[in-house]
Design brief:
Blueprint (H helix, E strand, L loop, with lengths): L27 E2 L5 E2 L2 H4 L12 E2 L4 E2 L9
Antiparallel strand pairs: 1-2, 3-4
């Protein structure tokens, strides 16, 4: 079962478990259920785990916990 990729920048459990991985806004799902690619969206303590992304290598750092599933 592949997770649906967000088509409106919304993600996470409140939006049908949609993932940001591969979305046009970025791979990370913020605590406010928006997709993005900056630290605000990808920081491990605030992001939602939706999908299987384990690092935000494009930001030059690795997440301590998985960053994209449910908290």
């Amino acid at each position: 079962a592949t997770q649906a990729v967000s088509k409106d920048a919304r993600c996470g459990p409140s939006f049908g478990g949609r993932t940001c991985l591969g979305s046009e806004w970025g791979d990370c799902c913020s605590q406010y259920s928006y997709c993005g690619s900056t630290l605000a969206y990808c920081e491990a303590k605030t992001c939602q785990k939706v999908g299987a992304l384990t690092s935000c290598s494009h930001l030059g750092y690795t997440l301590i916990t998985h960053c994209l599933g449910l908290r």
